[in-house]
Write a structure and sequence with these properties.
The complex is a heterodimer of chains A (about 450) and B (about 475). Chain A is built from 16 helices and 13 strands. Chain A has about 450 residues and is an alpha/beta fold. In chain A, helix 10 links the parallel strand 5 and strand 6. Chain A is globular and about 65 Å long. The two termini of chain A are about 35 Å apart. Chain B is an alpha/beta fold and about 475 residues long. Helix content of chain B is about 40%, strand content about 15%. In chain B, the strands form 4 sheets. In chain B, strands 4-10-9-8-7-5-6 form a 7-stranded mixed beta sheet, sandwiched between helices. In chain B, helix 5 crosses helix 12, helix 6 crosses helix 11 and helix 13 runs parallel beside helix 15. The longest helix of chain B has 28 residues. Chain B is globular, with a radius of gyration of 23 Å. Chain B starts with a helix and ends in a 22-residue tail after the last helix. Classes of the chains: A alpha/beta (about 450), B alpha/beta (about 475). At the A-B interface, helix 1, helix 3, helix 5, helix 7 and helix 12 of A face helix 1, helix 3, helix 4, helix 6 and helix 11 of B.
Chain lengths: ~450, ~475
C-alpha cells in the first residue's frame, strides 16, 4: 500500500482532509522500505525481510486442494440458473447457506464450546468494515470506545475516521503480560469522564494483535462485570480465534455468555473474519455477530454499504459447509502456526532476545527494551530505523500500536510460504546477531 | 444505549409504504404455473435479459472462475490481494468498458478510478469526501429512493430537491436549479453540490446535452460539485445516444480545468451487466484529492478480489463486450416497447423513454383525486387488485401525484405480457364502474374499505427500501 500525501483542498469535507486515516504513521514507512527493496534468498539476499505483515500463508495448500476437488463451488456447477440466481442476489441478509456455514465454522473454531445462531450473523466486506459499522451503531461523534494497548494500528482509522468517535486507551504493561486489569479499566474510564467524554463501550481483540496471546477467562469475566456496571457495550474482535495454537487455550466471550445463560448478552458483539484464519483477506469476508436484536437489524441495513460479493459468499458457503474439510483445516492450521512460532522464538532466544509468552496469532511480541538507549519512544524508533535499514527487517514498533512501554516490537511469522520460512528465519537471526554485535560495539 | 443513527429510525428509510408492496409480493409471488394469481414483481430495477450471453462467456472461459490465468493458478495471489488501489487489470478493463459504453467519445484513466462494493458504497463514500455533516446536495426529482439513505444516513448530509415537472417532461431547468439553491440558502444550508442520475432512475431518460451544459455552467458559477450517477449508462437503447458529463467537459475543453476537478462520475456493473450481487462499483474523478481520500475510504467496502479477477477477464474480452452491449440494448429496447404498447392498449401513457430498466408511467387520469392520497389509493388497488408491485412516484419524491415506475427487465416476456393483460382488465373495469349508477359504486367501495392499510402508509414522505433491495 503506497502512501499518498493529501493536500488540503477547497471543496472537500473535513473527514477527507484529516489525518485520522492514520496512513502517515511510521508503521507504513516500513512497508515502503520493503516495497522498495524486498528480500529474496537468491536475487536479493540483502533486501528487507518482510515481517510486518500479519497474513496467514501457512495453509494455502489445503485451500487449493479443496478447490481442485470442488470446482462447482467456484463456477456454480456451470448451471445458468445457479449463476443467474447468485449474480442477482444482493439481499443484505446474505446467502442463508453462507450464514449457516459461517455460524457453524465459528462454532468449530471454538471447539463447539459456544453456539452461534445464523440469524445473528451480519455479513460485511471484511472485519475493517465490521468494526467501523459497529462503531457507527454503538456511538455518536465525540463519544469514545476504550481499547486496551497495545492495539492494532488500523483501529485508529477503523473506529475513528468517519465515525468521529474517539479511542481512550486502557493501559496495559509487561508487569502482568499486558493483561487487562480492573484498575486499568477504571483508570481509563475515569480519565474519559474527567475530560467530559462519554464512553460507549470497550473493544478488545481476542486473541490479541499484536500480543499474540489469548485473553484469560478471568479477564473476560471482569470485563463483562465492568461493562455491565457502567452500562456500556463490549465488542470482542475475534478474527484470530482460529490461530490459537491449542484450541483449549482460547476462550471466546461467547462461551462466557453461554455459561451465564446469556445474562447481559445484549451489550456484547463479536467481530469475525476469514482474512486471518483462512488466509483470504482479498475476498473481504467479515461478520458482526450481535446478541442485541436492534444492533443486528441496524447492522444488516448498514451492511448495504459493504456487502460481500455473492460470488464469494457462494464459494465460502460450499467450503465451510464441508465439515470434513473445515475440521481438518482448523487442526492442521493450528499445528503449523505453533511450529512456526516455536521456531522463531527459539531462534530469537539464541540471539538473546526474549518475547512475550504467546499462544496465538500470526506474530510474536518481541522485547528489545534492554537495547534501548533510554526508555522512550524516540529510542524505540531509533532502534526500529536501524533494524529496518541495517538489519533489514520490516517489523512493527510498539509505539505504532500505542504500547505504553517502549521497546516492544511485533514480528510476523506466517506471511511467507512453508518452503521459505526456515531460510527466512535463519537469515533474520543471522542479521539480528550481527546487529547485536553491532549494538554492543556502539554502546 | 445506541447511537442516534439507530434511534433516528427513519433515516435508513426503511419504514415506508414502499415496503408494503414488497411484503405483499413476498407473501404471494406470481408464478405462471404454481401461483398464477400471485403478485407480479414490477418494482425491481434488475436487468435479467442477458444472462445467457454472460453464461456462454463463462462456459468458454472456465479459467476466470477457476482462479487460473493461462492455465496457472492465481488463487494465492488473489486470496492475498487486498490493496485498496484495486486489481490493475480490472481497473484497466473497467476504464475501457466505460469508454466503450460512451461510444469511445471519451477515455478514462484507470488511476482516476476508485473501486467500491457497489454504487451504494460509491455514492456514500463520495459524500463523505465532499460534504460535512449538515452540508447539502441538490437532487432533481423524481429520484432513486435509496439516495435518502446512501447520501444522508451516516454522512449527516442533507438533500434539497430540484423540482422537475411533467410540463416539460421532467427536464432540469435553470429556474428549478436556482429555486432549489435559494431554498437551501433560505434554510441556512450550505450547498456543496448537485447529484444527478444519468440516465435517470426512475424516468428512464438520458439527460440532454443542454441539461448537462446547464449543470456544468451552474456548478462552475456556484463553485460546487457535480456528481453524475451513470449506473444505467449501458441501458440506453434508443436515441438520443447517451452523453456523459465527461463528454461535455471534453467538448467544452474543460478537461483538467478547475471545474472538471469538481465533477465526479459513479459507475457500477449492477444494471449494465445485471450483476448486482457481485458488488462492483466505482468512483471516477479527475480530482486527485478526492481519489486519494476515497481510495483510503474504500477499505470499508472493497470488491472481492475473486470478483475483480472474473470481471477483469470478462471485460478485457473486447469481442464479448462489443457483442454484449449491442445485444443487451436491443433486448432492452424490445422489452420497453412491449411494456409501452401493453400500457397503450389500456390507454395508459408513459414518459417517452430511451434508457433504463423501467418506464415512468402516467396514471394521473386514474386517480380518484389528484393528490398523493389519491396516488396511494390507486397504488393500493394496483398491489391488491391488479396484483402488480410497482413503485409510486411519491416514494421517488415526485412533486406531482399519479406517476409510477414500472420495471420491464426483471421478468420473462410472457410474464410482462400477462401483467399488461391484467392492467387492461383493471382499466376496463374502472371505466365500466365510472359509468355505473352511484349506489352500485358505494356498495363496492364499502367492500373495499375492509382491506384498508394502516395510517402510516398514507404519509407523504415515503422512502423505500428493504429486503436487500434496491434500485
Amino acid at each position: 500500500m503506497a502512501i499518498e500525501i493529501v493536500q488540503p483542498s477547497v471543496g472537500l469535507s473535513k473527514i477527507a482532509v484529516s489525518q485520522t486515516h492514520g496512513e502517515n504513521s511510521p508503521y507504513f514507512s516500513g512497508w515502503k522500505a520493503y516495497d522498495e527493496n524486498p528480500y529474496h534468498e537468491i536475487d536479493n539476499p540483502s533486501g528487507v525481510i518482510q515481517m510486518g505483515l500479519a497474513e496467514n500463508q501457512v495453509s494455502f495448500d489445503l485451500l487449493e486442494e479443496y478447490l481442485e476437488t470442488n470446482l462447482e463451488s467456484a463456477n456454480w456447477g456451470q448451471k445458468v440458473s445457479g449463476f443467474r440466481e447468485n449474480a442477482l442476489f444482493q439481499d443484505y441478509h446474505g446467502l442463508q447457506s453462507f450464514r449457516k456455514a459461517m455460524a457453524s465454522f465459528m462454532e468449530q473454531v471454538r471447539g463447539g464450546k459456544a453456539k452461534f445462531n445464523p440469524d445473528r450473523v451480519v455479513l460485511t466486506a471484511g472485519a475493517t468494515a465490521a468494526n467501523e459499522l459497529l462503531t457507527f451503531i454503538l456511538a455518536d461523534p465525540g463519544d469514545a470506545l476504550m481499547v486496551p494497548t497495545p492495539y492494532y494500528p488500523g483501529f485508529d482509522r477503523d473506529l475513528r475516521w468517519r465515525t468521529g468517535v474517539q479511542i481512550v486507551p486502557i493501559h496495559c504493561d509487561s508487569s502482568n503480560g499486558f493483561q487487562i486489569t480492573p484498575e486499568a479499566l477504571e483508570a481509563a474510564y475515569d480519565h474519559a469522564t474527567s475530560m467530559n467524554i462519554k464512553v460507549k463501550g470497550v473493544l478488545i481483540t481476542n486473541p490479541s494483535n499484536p500480543l499474540g496471546a489469548t485473553v484469560q477467562r478471568k479477564v473476560l469475566e471482569e470485563l463483562l462485570e465492568f461493562v455491565t456496571r457502567k452500562n456500556i457495550h463490549l465488542v470482542s474482535d475475534e478474527i484470530y480465534s482460529g490461530s490459537a495454537f491449542c484450541a483449549d487455550e482460547f476462550v471466546s466471550i461467547a462461551e462466557v455468555l453461554e455459561s451465564r445463560n446469556y445474562k447481559d448478552a445484549e451489550r456484547c458483539h463479536i467481530v469475525y473474519s476469514l482474512s486471518k484464519d483462512l488466509g483470504l483477506p482479498g475476498f473481504r469476508i467479515g461478520t458482526v455477530y450481535s446478541y442485541n436484536d436492534q444492533v443486528v437489524t441496524t447492522a444488516r441495513r448498514m451492511s448495504s454499504f459493504t456487502l460481500i460479493s455473492s460470488q464469494t459468499q457462494f464459494l465460502l458457503a460450499s467450503m465451510l459447509s464441508d465439515t470434513d474439510f473445515t475440521q481438518k483445516y482448523i487442526k492442521i492450521n493450528r499445528e503449523r502456526l505453533k511450529k512456526r512460532y516455536e521456531m522463531i522464538i527459539n531462534g530469537l532466544q539464541k540471539a538473546g532476545i526474549e518475547c512475550l509468552k504467546g499462544n496465538a496469532g500470526l506474530f510474536c511480541w518481541m522485547n528489545l527494551s534492554p537495547y534501548l538507549e533510554e526508555p522512550t519512544i524516540k529510542s524505540e524508533l531509533a532502534i526500529w530505523n536501524t533494524i529496518m535499514h541495517e538489519v533489514r527487517l520490516n517489523i512493527s514498533p510498539g509505539s505504532s500500536c500505542h504500547c505504553s512501554e517502549p521497546g516492544w516490537f511485533r514480528v510476523c511469522f506466517a506471511n511467507m510460504s512453508e518452503a521459505r520460512y526456515a531460510s527466512l528465519v535463519s537469515a533474520m537471526i543471522i542479521n539480528i546477531i550481527k546487529f547485536s554485535i553491532f549494538l554492543a560495539i556502539i554502546f | 444505549m445506541l447511537s442516534t443513527k439507530v434511534t433516528d429510525c427513519n433515516a435508513h428509510g426503511q419504514d415506508s409504504s414502499y415496503f408494503l408492496g414488497w411484503e405483499e409480493y413476498e407473501k404471494n409471488p406470481y408464478d405462471s404455473i404454481d401461483n398464477p394469481n400471485g403478485i407480479v414483481q414490477m418494482g425491481l430495477a434488475e436487468n435479467q435479459l442477458s444472462f445467457d450471453t454472460l453464461q456462454s462467456w463463462l462456459d468458454n472461459n472456465p479459467d476466470a472462475t477457476a482462479f487460473k490465468k493461462n492455465g496457472q493458478s492465481v488463487f494465492k495471489e488473489l486470496a492475498l490481494f487486498q490493496d485498496y488501489h484495486g486489481l490493475p487489470s480490472f481497473k484497466n478493463a473497467l476504464a475501457n468498458f466505460m469508454s466503450e459504453i460512451r461510444g469511445n467519445n471519451v477515455t478514462f484513466d484507470p488511476s482516476n478510478l476508485v473501486l467500491t462494493a457497489g454504487a451504494t458504497s460509491a455514492n456514500e463514500t463520495l459524500m463523505f469526501c465532499v460534504a460535512n455533516p449538515g452540508d447539502t446536495f441538490l437532487v432533481p426529482t423524481p429520484y432513486y429512493p435509496g439516495f435518502d439513505r446512501d447520501l444522508k444516513w451516516r454522512t449527516g448530509a442533507e438533500i434539497i430537491p430540484i423540482h422537475c415537472s411533467s410540463s416539460n417532461s421532467f427536464r432540469i431547468t435553470k429556474s428549478a436549479l436556482e429555486d432549489a439553491y435559494q431554498q437551501a440558502q433560505k434554510q441556512d444550508y450550505k450547498v456543496k453540490g448537485i447529484l444527478v442520475t444519468n440516465p435517470s432512475n426512475p424516468l428512464g431518460t438520458s439527460l440532454s446535452v443542454d441539461e448537462l451544459q446547464l449543470l456544468v455552467n451552474f456548478i462552475s458559477t456556484k463553485n460546487i460539485h457535480l456528481i453524475s450517477d451513470e449506473v444505467y449508462s449501458a441501458t440506453v437503447f434508443s436515441s438520443p445516444n447517451f452523453v456523459s458529463v465527461s463528454e461535455v467537459l471534453k467538448n467544452k475543453n474543460l478537461v483538467n480545468s478547475e471545474v472538471s476537478k469538481r465533477v465526479h462520475v459513479i459507475c457500477s456493473l449492477s444494471k449494465d451487466l445485471g450483476l448486482p450481487g457481485f458488488r462492483i462499483g466505482a468512483i471516477y474523478s479527475e480530482n486527485k484529492d478526492v481519489i486519494s481520500a476515497a481510495t483510503k475510504m474504500s477499505s470499508f467496502g472493497l470488491i472481492s478480489s475473486q470478483t475483480q479477477y472474473l470481471l477483469s477477464e470478462m471485460l478485457s474480452d473486447r469481442k464479448f463486450t462489443k457483442t454484449y452491449l449491442s445485444e443487451n440494448r436491443r433486448r432492452l429496447k424490445h422489452r420497453q416497447e412491449t411494456l409501452v404498447k401493453g400500457l397503450q392498449k389500456a390507454r395508459i401513457r408513459c414518459l417517452k423513454g430511451n434508457a433504463g430498466l423501467f418506464c415512468w408511467v402516467d396514471m394521473r387520469h386514474l386517480l380518484s383525486s389528484k393528490t398523493f392520497l389519491g396516488e396511494m389509493e390507486l397504488w393500493k388497488k394496483i398491489v391488491y387488485d391488479v396484483r402488480l408491485n410497482i413503485s409510486p412516484g411519491s416514494s421517488c419524491h415526485c412533486s406531482e401525484p399519479g406517476w409510477f415506475r414500472v420495471c420491464f427487465a426483471n421478468m420473462s416476456e410472457k410474464t410482462l405480457m400477462f401483467a399488461m393483460q391484467r392492467v387492461k382488465s383493471f382499466v376496463d373495469a374502472m371505466s365500466k364502474k365510472r359509468n355505473q349508477p352511484r349506489h352500485e359504486q358505494i356498495r363496492i367501495s364499502h367492500a373495499r374499505r375492509t382491506k384498508s392499510l394502516p395510517k402510516w402508509v398514507f404519509s407523504i414522505s415515503c422512502n423505500p427500501l428493504e429486503v436487500g433491495e434496491i434500485r
